# Entry
Amino acid sequence: MTLNIAIHLDRQARQSLVEQIAGEIRNAIAAGRLLPGARLPSWHDLAAQLGVARGTVRAAYERLGDEQLVASAGAAGTYVTARPAPRPIAHQGAPRALPPILQGAGGEPNLFQLGVPAQDAFPAKTWSRLQVQAARQVGAHAVGYPDPCGEAELRREIVASLAIARGIACSPEQVFITAGYAGAFGLALQILQLKGARCWMEDPGYLFARRALELAGLQPVPIPVDEEGLDVATGLALAPDAEVALVTPGQQAPLGVTLSLPRRQALLDWAAQRGAWIIEDDYLGELQLKGRAAPALAALDRTGRVLHIGTFSKTINPALRLGFLVVPEELASRFLESASFLGPAPAPVAQLAVAAFLREGHYLRHLRRMKRIYGERRQQLSTCLTAQGVHHRLAGLSVLRHLPPDCDDAALARMARQQGLYPMPLSPWFARPESAHRGLLLGVTNVPPERAADCCERLDALVRLSSNLAEPR
# Structure
């Protein structure tokens, strides 16, 4: 039996009659008004009912057939197909909270927020011009697949920059452009095939990396950090069978200490003797605010055991999602194959813009200016905390404000966010809660000197309030 369908057409609408007819039938099927097995009117009948050409109805039915919503049985007509019942949508409840390291993501840089460059110090006009030029350059190229390892221009500029700023001697063939730190880290873990292996990791250390190791099937072994960086001797005692070490030797995340030369040599000796790998996260390596930055760990590697990860997140913009991985020469072919099939480089436009930013000298000028500005802002923040009598220490591009052992720094950070302040609690950076220290990491990059005193006073008021609330009654 032919089924009559109430379809209302708007001949003034932008949507074509074919799209309107198909949409009405589609909605009827989704709403359950047309059940599986229901026969649709013939093209002739529906066309006469709607006052349209039969070809219009036929095109609508064909569109629904392409979506597998209806099927033609020839002379027997067109029927609604049987489909699985839609999966019910679970109640979402409150939005899921971001991990502490990502709090404040997705908007303008916030006061005390870590990991974002200064909004007011970026050469936006120059950068916009280079992005436009890069887009035109890509548009003028012949259509084709880009190099999965990354644009040759950018890899050459990175090689030159690393030789000057980080002391690393490498070739463009050893450099792989990735989707930020996560892309480089994931590619390294994938190629080294370390599933089940034990990995030395700094304690306190980068939360993102610890979780990434766990998701990749490795066993992070927390190794304490002191004023010389990762304690290699403790690593040898706790996990002599480890197959990889993840370190931030330039400025340790989050304490800001530089791995000492004896510790660097001990770490390299261990890797060479054990046949282990070292993944160097060059966190803030180029942004040493006092003195000259120490050479990268990869610059001292003579046995090909160090993989070096760098990004442009802290120096240009984290929204670029642009990083790079430098691998030992003997691993380059393995990484080439994997990058080609599993982790190709991001789109060329951002790469070419960064390449021009480096090539034309803007990057070095920008780094010099940022180091001066960040040094002033960090000093002003420290001066304000000192005036308040607050115990603190400098920690790279942040200032670590110490808290009493019984203070819940995570709860305090949540309170601060409600007041427009985004400090990072220190305790989650520790792998072992029993050894965690309490504190707040105050990012300095987006705290102008004229606002430092007010921000410190507001934060101090919250600390005092938190202490009063925690006192037993």
In short: The first helix runs from residue 17 to 31.
